[in-house]
Structure formats: C-alpha cells, structure tokens
C-alpha cells in the first residue's frame, strides 16, 4: 500500500509539471514558429500565461522567441517582463545576448548591449558571447561589428587557443565572414594551442569543397580534421563518405589521437552510427587504449544505450575491469547513464559489482543519483537488474551515507520518497554522526525537506556527535532565519 501511494505521488507530480508546461502556449516552440504578433503574445499573457516560465532545460518564452526569429518588438516586450531581464540565465546559463548573437539578430544585439548586457559573459560551457555566436553559425557581419565596437578584441583567442575565424569557418560557405575577419587582422595560417588549423576546424560540418578552397590558399590539413568531423551539428552527423574522403583522398590517419588522448572510436561510440563504427573498427584502432583521464572506448559506449555495440567491443577486447582516474569502470558508467540492458550484460560478463570509485561510492550510489523524473522506467529496470545480481540496495556507502543522505544532498523530495519506498534507514547516521534530518537542517532552503523526512519517520530527538539536534542545526541555518521560516516543528 505504501509503495503504491508513493508511486501515485511521483506520478501526480510529474503530470502536474508536464501539464503546467503544455498549458502555457508561450512555452510551445510551435507557437513561436507561427511568428505571433505582439498583440497575440500580450493576449496570452493576459490569460495568465507566464512570460518568464522556464522548463526543465531552462528554456523560456524569450529564448524560444529569439531562436524562432520572432519580431524584435515581441522579444523586447518579453525581456522587459518581470522574471526576465537582460541578465537572466537560461539554457546552459546563456543570456539573451548570446541567443541573439547566435541567431544573427543584429538589432537585438545592439539593443541588449545598449541596455548593459555583458558582452564578456561566459555560459556554463565557458563560451563567451561572440565565440558561441561564431560556432553556432552566425554569418551576420553586423553582429560581429556591434560586439567589436562594444569592446571585444577581434584577435582574442578562445578555448584551446582557437580564433574567431576557426570557430566560424565551418558555417562560412561563401567566405564573407572569413574575408571580414581577415580584415580585422586574423590569418588563415593561424593555429590553435594544439597545432590545429583553420582547415581542420572547417571539417566539422563535412564541407569538403570548403576544405579544398582552404587548401588552395595554402592552409594545412592535419589528422585532427577527423576529430572535428565527428562533431557535426545538432541537426546533422557527418556520414561515412566524409571520413572516407578525409582518409583516402587526403591521407589522414584513422589511428590518430586527439589532445585528450582519445581515438576516433572514443568519440564515435558516444553517438553511435553502426556504419561509421564498423569502418573504424576495420582500421585496427587499439580498442584497449585509454584517454588521458583513463576512459576506455568500452566505458564511453557503456554510458550510452547501444547494447549491441557494447557486446561488439567486449568481443574484440575485454576491458571490463579497467578503471579511469576517478575509479569508475564500465559498469559504473552504465549504471549512471547507460541502459538497464547494458548493466545486465556487463554483470553477466563478469563486471565487479562491488567496485567503488575513488570517493568510496559504490554502484548503488551512481544508480540512485541517475534518477530522473522523465526516465522512471529505466530507473526501475536498473534496480531490478541490481537486485537480481544480489546487490544490497540499502547498504550505506563507505562514509555511512544512505539513500536518504544522498537524496537530501540533492534536495530532491522525489528521491527522499524513493529512498523510503526502497526501505532505507531514515535515521541512520553517517561517519560524522549526521542523520538525513540533520543534513537537511543544515542545507534546507525551506521547510519542505524537513517536514517530508519527519512525515516518513525521521526522529527529531537524535543528536550528532557534537550533541546537536536537527532543531539546533536548523536554528543555525542562515537561509531559514533570513527568510523567517519557522523551525519550531523540529522541537
């Protein structure tokens, strides 16, 4: 009965979140593809639909409007709404200026710069505004000019010493951006910090005629072009023909290694294409090779969803017991992000189910932390595989952390309820003497974590090794006190 009740709570929460998102037309990309007028957008807002709502990926109506090339009067109106603003962080912590620059919206870029948007801001990937715009395919010279006038140095270098010309070249089929950047002092013969050339960067989208044009201008092509070709784009992955020509026509080495110590197969197994993988498997690449972080090709494949690929790799070279620099094995990778079928296969092939990483975390830790509300079936399937292998799901980690402790660390009420459903000890103490309730009292931003734990049986009277109760710790929580959140219920 308790299990069914908790599952109903999970389901209700998921459906409620999904319903909220679907019910707001401003959060529907199709709405923006129709190029709505300002009056239409205002009408939806007047109906109570939020202009600042974000989804699980932190996209909001304004990012949808910018990326779908809505009119600037609409976009500016949205930016000015409460909850938005020029400094708001959205998907991958990008600001509206980054989205506008990538979309080639020069007028919006100028507006945002004028209003004080940070032209040097870096997103969660470390990409500054202009670098993201160049690599995303902006070909509007006015965007570059506006950013240069605002203070960006055209000759600045970015990740791995790449120039703007390198970042932009794959999209520059007519050479207009190239000629513009050359006029700003950049050079076709520049190389990045690893010796990679403009022609190497051009291989990203598989445009071989662009590479020919660069070669005709005296630009070198190196083996690293093969690695850029594996990148493709969000919409397109380069096919076998591109790699065959790079190898057979230009003589590039299929066994090459990139600056991270990866082979081409290290990368290709992350986004499996059977034809491509079979082609490179035929090139005698060392299947056992680890990259500089200790990751093998098998580990990378195990983190994905292609069980047949994992079977193929195991048949060619069994690196199932290899550890990377963090102490992770292929099984840990599979449990953390791969499929239940891969987890099952690795265990049946002899993977060590008692393995712990360098932090002392076992595979249950990695499985539990993989929980996602939109992937519950996979979570349960992995649970069944682990149980069938005789693994004690509720056993504490080396530091005494139980599933409840892990759930509290993530401040995730769904996971707290999941820990209860699985039978974890809600009053267990870690190596520092803290119960999950103690931990929650220290880090809680409101009273919901604490009240959920108490409702599930957490004992308020238990004390830490310093003789402190949850109430004592909660009284020291600055966030709770600053926000006037009462903790008297912990007495």
From TrEMBL:
Source domain of life: Bacteria
ANK repeats: 92-124, 194-226, 260-292, 293-325, 326-358, 399-431, 432-465
Keyword Repeat attached: yes
Keywords, ordered alphabetically: ANK repeat, Repeat, Signal
SUPFAM superfamilies associated with the record: Ankyrin repeat
Entries under SMART domains matching the protein: ANK
Secretion signal span: 1-19
InterPro entries tied to this protein: Ankyrin_rpt, Ankyrin_rpt-contain_sf
Keyword Membrane: no
Protein name: Ankyrin repeat domain-containing protein
């Amino acid at each position: 009965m308790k299990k069914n009740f908790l599952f109903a709570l999970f389901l209700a929460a998921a459906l409620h979140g999904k319903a909220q998102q679907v019910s707001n037309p401003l959060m529907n990309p199709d709405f923006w593809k129709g190029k709505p007028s300002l009056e239409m957008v205002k009408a939806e807002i007047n109906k109570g639909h939020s202009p600042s709502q974000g989804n699980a990926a932190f996209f909001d109506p304004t990012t949808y409007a910018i990326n779908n090339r809505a009119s600037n009067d609409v976009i500016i109106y949205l930016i000015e709404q409460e909850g938005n603003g020029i400094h708001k962080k959205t998907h991958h912590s990008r600001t509206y200026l980054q989205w506008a620059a990538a979309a080639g919206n020069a007028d919006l870029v100028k507006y945002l710069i004028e209003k004080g948007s940070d032209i040097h801001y870096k997103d969660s990937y470390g990409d500054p505004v202009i670098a993201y715009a160049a690599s995303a395919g902006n070909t509007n010279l006015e965007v570059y000019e506006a950013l240069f006038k605002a203070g960006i140095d055209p000759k600045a270098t970015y990740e791995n010493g790449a120039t703007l010309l390198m970042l932009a070249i794959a999209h520059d089929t007519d050479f207009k951006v190239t000629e513009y950047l050359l006029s700003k002092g950049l050079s076709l013969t520049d190389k990045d910090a690893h010796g990679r050339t403009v022609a190497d960067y051009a291989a990203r989208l598989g445009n071989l005629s662009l590479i020919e044009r660069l070669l005709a201008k005296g630009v070198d092509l190196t083996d690293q072009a093969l690695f850029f070709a594996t990148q493709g784009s969000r919409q397109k992955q380069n096919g076998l023909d591109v790699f065959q020509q790079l190898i057979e026509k230009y003589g590039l080495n299929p066994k090459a290694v990139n600056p991270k110590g990866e082979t081409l197969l290290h990368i290709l197994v992350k986004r499996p294409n059977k034809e491509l993988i079979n082609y490179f498997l035929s090139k005698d690449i060392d299947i056992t090779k680890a990259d500089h972080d200790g990751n093998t090709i098998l580990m990378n494949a195990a983190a994905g969803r292609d069980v047949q690929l994992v079977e193929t790799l195991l048949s060619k070279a069994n690196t199932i017991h290899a550890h990377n620099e963090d102490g992770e094995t292929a099984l840990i990778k599979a449990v953390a992000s791969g499929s239940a079928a891969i987890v099952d296969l690795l265990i049946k092939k002899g993977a060590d189910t008692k393995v712990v990483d360098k932090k002392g975390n076992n595979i249950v830790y990695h499985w539990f932390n993989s929980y996602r509300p939109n992937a519950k079936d996979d979570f349960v399937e992995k649970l069944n595989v682990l149980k069938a292998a005789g693994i004690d799901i509720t056993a504490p980690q080396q530091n005494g952390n139980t599933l409840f402790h892990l759930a509290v660390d993530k401040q995730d009420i769904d996971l707290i309820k999941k820990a209860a459903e699985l039978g974890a000890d809600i009053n267990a103490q870690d190596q520092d003497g803290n119960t999950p309730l103690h931990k929650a009292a220290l880090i809680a931003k409101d009273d919901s974590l604490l009240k959920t734990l108490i409702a599930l049986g957490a004992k308020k009277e238990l004390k830490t090794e310093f003789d402190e109760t949850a109430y004592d710790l909660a009284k020291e929580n600055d966030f709770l006190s600053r926000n006037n959140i009462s903790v008297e219920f912990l007495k």
